[in-house]
Design brief:
Structural class: alpha+beta
Number of strands: 19
Low-confidence stretches: 309-325
Largest sheet: 8 strands, antiparallel
Oligomer: single chain
Strand order of the largest sheet: 15-12-14-13-17-18-16-19
CATH topology of the domain at 101-223: Uridine Diphospho-n-acetylenolpyruvylglucosamine Reductase, domain 3
CATH architecture of the domain at 101-223: 2-Layer Sandwich
CATH class of the domain at 101-223: Alpha Beta
Mean pLDDT: 81
Shape: globular
Length: about 450
């Protein structure tokens, strides 16, 4: 006779197989390995469910509610911090890959959250449309992860965040109810107006599954321009980074480009700038204008490669420089005045770790996003959560930074800095959408 945890796992497994099928349920050592947990033993996740559609997500949530098993939605496994999956039912949303439905007339794309962002952008470009922003490196980023975290991306970041283009969403609440947010009437308008109040959809998406599991989203598309890249490189230093930030602010403000990237590694700063134009004939003049601006900031940009309007990014044509093979990262947003302070703080944190800085800067119209690569000594048994970039994340917040991919370890520190109105709204949403704590009970505050 099974007792305790084993009986709970067996009951959850039987329920999930009955509703999803055997090939969409993983338990035991297979579940532990999938989540980054060591094989053997009796700890780790209760099970991993891989639903294929919103109806199956509803079923998983109801099973978790019935069996009193906290749920943890994830779009990528293994997780960065394996301890957070102890005794929870993992909902692997990467299987929610409803193919993109491109509405050319309305200029929208409706897509499952598990669909790779690069695939959505490629299909949109067949209609001479594109997503507002994209990650610079095709690392398999899913649409849901970019939207839920408010990630502005890198390519096209001068145009703003992909979150600005959400005009609808399909969400399963913590009570197992499927709800639709958004309306076709909003298409062509600014859906979320900043009026000094809390943003309910922003809270729901940014909760990373603690208020509701997003199954699909409808995004506004934009005309795809012709683009060309200009590059520069040199020693990485504070003055060099500030010169790049100054160039980015001026160039983006006059719409001389739509993307400015700065990658620091091995004490070198690689600069990549993308010029965009609505006609290929206008590209040479746009490049010359940008090069003149760069010379005023002691940067000499050279032409690297051009991209066709209907061809996906140069990185997929083998022309983009090799991406940094990084592990865990901490992503934060920062306003223009705080860029120097954030550079100083991260420099000190990297120095405390005894590691050379690995930072990727992408500049937008209202500030910058910094991606800090967190490298640890696996051979020495060092944990990710002991790295100063993570353990002392409060220093990043004090420097004016706002996290995009918060994660379980950074969420309490981020919530402490939320305005009171946002906290009140979040608590109200949790009472309405997940009153029993099926999604937030184990994984922490929303």
């Amino acid at each position: 006779m099974l007792e305790g945890r084993a009986a709970i796992v067996a009951a959850i497994f039987a329920d999930l197989v009955d509703r999803l099928g055997r090939n969409r349920v993983v338990v035991g050592d297979d579940a532990r390995r999938a989540c980054g947990w060591p094989s053997g033993g009796r700890d780790g996740p209760l099970a991993v469910a891989l639903p294929a559609n919103a109806e199956q997500v509803e079923a998983v949530v109801r099973i978790g509610k019935t069996r009193h098993a906290p749920l943890l939605p994830r779009l990528r496994l293994p997780v960065q911090y394996p301890d957070e999956v102890r005794d929870v039912l993992i909902v692997d949303c990467s299987g929610l890959q409803a193919p993109p439905i491109i509405d050319i007339g309305r200029r929208t794309a409706t897509v499952g959250v598990g669909t790779p962002a690069a695939l959505v952008d490629r299909q949109a470009r067949q209609a001479r449309l594109c997503l507002r922003t994209m990650p610079a490196f095709d690392d398999g980023a899913r649409i849901g992860a970019l939207v839920a975290c408010g990630d502005p991306g890198d390519l096209g970041s001068g145009a703003g965040s992909l979150l600005q283009d959400v005009v609808g969403a399909e969400i399963v609440t913590g009570g197992g109810r499927l709800v639709q947010l958004g309306a076709a009437d909003w298409i062509g308008q600014q859906p979320w107006l900043p009026v000094g109040l809390g943003n309910p959809l922003g809270q729901l998406l940014g909760s990373e599954g603690r208020l509701g599991i997003v199954c699909s989203v409808t995004l506004r598309l934009h005309p795809a321009p012709d683009t060309a890249w200009l590059t520069a490189s040199g020693p990485a230093s504070r003055p060099a980074l500030l010169s790049l930030a100054s160039l980015a602010r001026q160039a983006l403000s006059v719409q001389a480009c739509d993307t400015v990237l700065g990658r620091e590694r091995d004490e070198l700063l690689q600069v990549d700038v993308r010029v965009a134009a609505w006609d290929a004939a206008d590209l040479p003049a746009a490049q010359a204008r940008l090069q003149r601006l760069a010379e005023q900031h002691q940067l000499r940009l050279t032409t690297a490669v051009s991209e066709g309007r209907r061809v996906k990014l140069g990185m997929q044509q083998g022309q983009w420089p090799a991406a940094v093979d990084h592990g865990p990262v901490v992503d934060v947003l920062v306003g223009w005045p705080d860029v120097p302070t954030l550079w100083d703080v991260t420099q000190a944190l990297y120095g405390e770790a005894g590691r050379p800085p690995q930072r990727i800067w992408s500049f937008g119209h209202d500030g910058a996003r910094l991606r800090c690569v967190v490298t640890v000594d696996a051979a020495g048994g060092q944990r990710i959560d002991t790295h100063p970039i993570v353990a002392r994340a409060g220093a990043l917040f004090d420097a004016g930074a706002v996290p995009t991919h918060v994660g379980s370890l950074l969420r309490p520190a981020a919530r402490e800095r939320m305005p009171t109105a946002a906290k009140v709204l979040g608590a109200a949403l949790q009472r309405a959408w997940d009153p029993e704590g099926n999604l937030a009970g184990k994984t922490g505050i929303w």
